[in-house]
TrEMBL record:
It is found in: Cell membrane. InterPro entries: CASP/CASPL, CASP_dom. Homodimer and heterodimers. It is a multi-pass membrane protein. GO terms for cellular component: plasma membrane. Keywords: Cell membrane, Membrane, Transmembrane, Transmembrane helix. Belongs to the Casparian strip membrane proteins (CASP) family. The lineage of its organism: Eukaryota, Viridiplantae, Streptophyta, Embryophyta, Tracheophyta. The chain crosses the membrane at residues 39-61. Pfam families: CASP_dom. This is CASP-like protein. Residues 2-56 form the Casparian strip membrane protein domain. Its main location: membrane.
Amino acid sequence: TMVALLIAGCSAALAVGYIAKYGNAHAGWIPVCRYMESFCNIGVISIVFSFGAFLVFYLLAAITMKSPRQIPVASC
């Protein structure tokens, strides 16, 4: 479930970034990247790092699932 939440957040950020770059004529939203270029550059960098974090988290989860650790039972 953590992987699903992480990719959902990344996808939502990507959707907002897409609207900021290209706008939405149907809704009347203009592209803002023409006016605030530094905002869009920082947004692109953060989205790239978010997807990188998703890939690292996914690989760690896959490695953990492949070789689970067994906890030894202590004898009394």
